[in-house]
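Section 4.2 – Deliverable D4.2 (structural model, holo form)

The reporting period included a commitment to supply a predicted holo structure for the target in complex with iron/sulfur cluster. Inputs used:
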Amino acid sequence: MPVKFAKYRTQVRARRSELPGYEHSGKLSRGHGITVKDIHDECGVFGIYGHPDAATISYLGLHALQHRGQESAGIATSDGQELKVYRQMGLVADVFNADVLKTLTGSAAIGHVRYSTAGSSTLLNAQPMKCIYSGGSIALAHNGNLTNFASLRHQLLARGHLFQSSSDSEILLQLVAAHYAPTLGDRVAAMMTQARGAYSLVILTADQMLAVRDPHGFRPLVLGRLEGAPVVASETTSLGLIGATYEREIEPGEIFIAGPNGETSCSPIKAPRLARCVFEQIYFARPDSVVFGRQVNTLRTEFGRQLAREQPVQNADVVIPVPDSGTPAAIGFAEQLNIPFAMGLIRSHYVGRTFIEPEQRIRHFGVKLKLAPVAEVIKDRVVVVVDDSIVRGTTSQKIMDMVRSRGAREVHLRISSPPTRWPCYYGIDTPSRKELIAARIESLADIAQELTADSVGYLSVEGMHQVVSGGGGDGYCDACFTGRYPVSIEDQYAPRGDKTDTV
Ligand code: SF4
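Output (structure tokens):
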């Protein structure tokens, strides 16, 4: 078994061990990068077709998606004859400059920002990925994770395919290239019958740009228009930055194609149910984006209101957010209970990538570098700290310590999402189940004790769904809260229809 493939199999087995029924195998071990949250954004994709400034527009579009991935950035362009690709490790602003953009000629482009959720953080795994197949050159950029990537990779290796990276995105590229069909759209449709899990894609050839979304619709992908040119992006915030108008979502299961003969769309695959990632709305997406048809800032404020109804704090003097992602929920919480809102923690936006390191000792240091308490807001007060989620609890504990050290009389932690008890397999890098505080510790009182908070309260699963969809949770994935995985990660390669998707 090739070394890299052996590593993949190990990862998949380890992740399986965290599924319901595998709880006690204790196999998982994986390092993770560090931010204020111990949970990471995934990737962002962008594409534009038929615009004279395609590379520069893509550069700007990727800027607005930087929150979705900070490890690498890349752009591929087409001048109608050939594809050019430039990708490097680093932030969009560091990777590209005017000289680089000048070399990316052509009126069609796709772009990508990456945080690694499958495959390691190396330049070989950066995107867009490009190869030459029987139809010419093709480049692909992917947001999401395949749940059957190990078996697909094994199948392709057995058939003689060569891989340059350890990314599951290369499997998608190879699947498209491997199918013999009259059109590229047909090849992509055939790929969709094999790929399982989460994928929002942009694909570029010499004369076409495609946007593709998996049939469950895990990750967002929207269509807009700039001076007549179709634009696709992971989030609407990209469209706003470049001055494009929003048209609609790329629908789950849809293949959108822009080419010399105009635009076409088809939906060859239907899933038994939608599984849009509710964590996009809780934490990942930018608050100014519209995700799955809902304005994210409004939703987050409403999460805070619902949390206040479910988990009020008596006699509180002030509500402070954990910035930036906890701010809308804190505003909603404070408004609902008519408690003063204040910025009791200030976030530094200038902490460099030096501190994105998977070392426990650096993580602790990093929290202090990123957040600083404001004593005037906190001293002698009963303080409610509102955040959008707790993952390991390490960061929350540091925040509780910070607030208390500035003289708070009581510190109550309120979380505008349900307890995160399960890892994600669909493109979000969550720690292992044994590292998740709400999986390790059952009672709220014990969690509060570990975090040194006077009390802890979470939004209920029912309350979350009430806010998102009016109740029930239809059409959404909530597996990291409930363990109900909409697509089994134990899927191995099987012709479509041989297995059921739902659990
Ligand atoms: S498991 Fe959680 S983070 Fe992953 S797709 Fe589902 S809701 Fe989103």
